[in-house]
Amino acid sequence: MSGSERDPAAFGILTSDPAYNAVLAARIDDTETLARVWIKPTGVPVPFEPGQYITIGVKVGEKWLQRPYSIASSARDLAGGYELYLRLVRGGAFTPLAFSLPVGHALRVLPPKGKFTLQPDDERVHLFISSGTGIAPFVSMARTLLADGRLRRAIYLNGVSYVSDIGYAELLNGWSASGEYPATYIPTISRPNDPANSGWTGRTGRVERIIRPALGDLHVDPHGAVAYLCGNPDMIVAAEQELRAYGLPGEAIHKELYWPAGKQPTGAAEQ
Question: What is the pLDDT of residues 181-192, one digit of tens each?
Answer without folding.
Answer: 999 999 999 999
